[in-house]
Amino acid sequence: MGAIGPRQAELAQSHPLRHLNWWASAAGVLSAVAGVLTGELLAGVASPSLSPVSAVAGAVVDFAPPAAKEWAIQTFGTGDKAFLVTAIAVVLVALGAAAGLLELRRPGFGAALAALIGVVGVVAVATRSLVSALAVACAIAAGIVAAAMIHWLVRRLRTDALEPPPADGAAGWGLSRRRFVRALAGSAAVVALGAVVTAVVRGTSLAASAAREALRLPSPASSAPPIPPDAAVGVDGITPLVTPNRDFYRIDTALVVPSVDPGGWKLDVTGLVDEPVSITWQELVSQPLIERHVTIACVSNTVGGNLIGNARWLGWPVRELLARARPRAGADMVLSRSVDGFTAGTPLEILMDPSVDAMLAIGMNGEPLPAEHGFPVRMIVPGLYGFVSATKWITELKVTTFAADKAYWSTRGWSDHGPIKTASRIDAPRDGARVTAGTVTLGGVAWAQHRGISRVEVKVDNGDWLPARLGTGISRDTWYQWSATVQLSPGRHVATVRAMDGTGALQAEQVAPPPPDGATGYHSITIEAGA
Ligand SMILES: Nc1nc2c(c(=O)[nH]1)N[C@H]1C(S)=C(S)[C@@H](COP(=O)(O)O)O[C@H]1N2
Ligand SMILES: [Mo]
């Protein structure tokens, strides 16, 4: 082995590696694909609602001029999302090839271009409302993988091409490029395997999340009543009145979040009805929609627990759809089914009650439902625990009877019926917190969905119950904030809260665990008051 042979030197100088263009482009495209797969695969596990590609799709829709959007909708109709994803793929392939060519000529520059594409992904993720550290990390990983792979493959290509011919005189590049080809083929095999794994892990979620990002919710025909100015009591550390989507509790039996493309979604009303009906996504979104704040809660929530959240839901009243199907006399339950087989059994009477506004929800706090919260459509029923009402990824409403059908949790030790029990919680100060002795402000939330809260009281140690200041409720279907100032002497104290619902019934004091129909008992915290 010695100096670079004259043939190679000539290649490098007079025809600077031009004959390797195809190979370098292939390496670049493969690296781009590897990066995208990495991002999507990680997102599938760590951040199902927000993957790098769906973020870019969303950002493109947000920042594209209206005329371009109009054109895409006119030209591709409901295929506009598919067009968007295809366009992003074409751009990525082109940029990948360009990065390969650049890396061949200026080692490091192509890798930098790949990293820059990764940065675009990171920025796109950062502009989305569901942004999280994990979502950003997925996009960063995508950029790193693409940049590292392009650098490694093209270096392999260059060394192979520039290596002196072996002593036996066989053509240098012709022989040694096989090592590069092997590296490329090996990488392609890994990428292909990664693609299969990604497809399995993510299913159709890329299409679904891109569709979600590109979606614009229609305006409600009936808007949510405005939040009263004195609904918030202004105590530090209290739960916000409306829970941001990214902080909303999540409870379901799904190992992998189902991905449902609204384009193929429909909801069938079956069972004891005069006329089985179906509704597609397009039909659903063109109905007069209502928007309401509703606080949903999990029956598994323990006293003082946080499996509860309040959101502004946009949807179509379930009773309108049921009315089209005309439930038969004798039916008393609607078994709602999810794509993943989960079922909930809801009293038909509640779903048909015009004062309840049970809805097929498509929007949560002004955006399409996040994948984790049931995209594209879920049910929301004010006043009922989630396990008997809040079916996510909903696909069927079977009108039936409690006698004939059992829902998922009702066969597993939980009750058939699940009205939400009146409860209250102290959020501030935190349990075990140290405060300065003297006047201390407590704050928290209380809820009795559909009955409303009429009164909240607090007690320190074994003292008297003192009335708390109750914020005006957004509606009786949501939780209420409350605050109270108490006097604490130095030492350890126990503060307790209780609430009374709108009918004048006090919340149950008797301590009961969540099964079979919801925990009861008063919430207490300890406070260390220092001098
Ligand atoms: N498809 C499906 N929907 C479901 C569930 C589920 O396991 N699968 N869990 C229910 C339960 S027990 C609750 S408390 C709520 C929680 O809704 P969230 O995850 O949006 O907060 O969803 C309900 N809907
Ligand atoms: Mo639940």
From TrEMBL:
The keyword Ion transport does not apply. It comes from the Bacteria. Keywords: Membrane, Transmembrane, Transmembrane helix. The chain crosses the membrane at residues 20-43, 82-102, 109-127, 133-154, 180-201. InterPro entries: Ig_E-set (IPR014756), OxRdtase_Mopterin-bd_dom (IPR000572), OxRdtase_Mopterin-bd_sf (IPR036374). Pfam families: Big_7 (PF17957), Oxidored_molyb (PF00174). Residues 256-406 form the Oxidoreductase molybdopterin-binding domain. This is Molybdopterin-dependent oxidoreductase. It comes from Sinomonas terricola. The lineage of its organism: Bacteria, Bacillati, Actinomycetota, Actinomycetes, Micrococcales.
